[in-house]
């Protein structure tokens, strides 16, 4: 049976990115993303809205760019894949799990100084961080994988640029 694991999200950051480095020197950024959905409920005759909060992990240069240029409230587009993390809760001993997104491409939306608000236009072709790479389920194996250059892409602006937009 075929399978396909791809997500595309546009939302606003719920907090400033947290950038850490693996023992191999690879940057890892953790982001919180809020994605809104609105609809009209015909039964109650009112507009409804729900917000979904999603954890996103970025690796390598994208993680560094996120840490340098993204702040709470900023609109961002993330392309990536879903990953299920499982662990045993230390306090209760129960099995826990959480679904998160591993970002494979990121695009900052809105202008340079904008704090978000959604619906902004892309900041230009060079703003797309399209370095795509595969990963593995565990961070240890992912760390050794990311010690080598990512497969594919680079920035769509053609060449390395210091400023990603």
From TrEMBL:
Sequence segments annotated as region (Disordered): 107-165
Extent of Gly residues compositional bias: 110-127
Keywords, sorted A to Z: DNA-binding
Any one GO BP annotation for this protein: DNA replication
Annotated GO MF terms: single-stranded DNA binding
GO cellular component: nucleoid
Entry-linked Pfam families: SSB (PF00436)
Biased composition regions of type Low complexity, renumbered to the chain: 128-138
Keyword tRNA-binding: no
Gene3D superfamilies with a match to the protein in the record: Nucleic acid-binding proteins (2.40.50.140)
The protein's assembly and partners: Homotetramer.
HAMAP family, per the entry: SSB (MF_00984)
Name of the featured protein: Single-stranded DNA-binding protein
Organism (species): Planctomicrobium piriforme
């Amino acid at each position: 049976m075929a399978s396909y694991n791809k997500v595309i999200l546009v939302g606003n950051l719920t907090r400033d990115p947290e950038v850490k480095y693996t023992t191999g020197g690879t940057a890892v950024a953790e982001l919180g993303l809020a994605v809104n959905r609105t609809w009209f409920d015909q039964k109650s005759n009112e507009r409804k809205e729900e917000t979904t909060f999603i954890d996103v992990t970025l690796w390598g240069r994208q993680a560094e760019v996120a840490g340098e240029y993204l702040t709470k409230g900023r609109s961002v587009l993330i392309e990536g894949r879903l990953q299920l993390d499982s662990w045993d809760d230390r306090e209760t001993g129960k099995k826990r799990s959480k679904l998160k997104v591993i970002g494979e491409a990121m695009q900052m939306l809105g202008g340079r100084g904008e704090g978000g608000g959604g619906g902004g236009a892309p900041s230009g072709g060079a703003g797309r961080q399209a370095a795509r790479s595969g990963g593995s389920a565990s961070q240890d194996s992912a760390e050794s994988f990311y010690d080598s250059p990512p497969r594919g892409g680079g920035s769509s602006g053609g060449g390395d640029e210091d400023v990603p937009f």
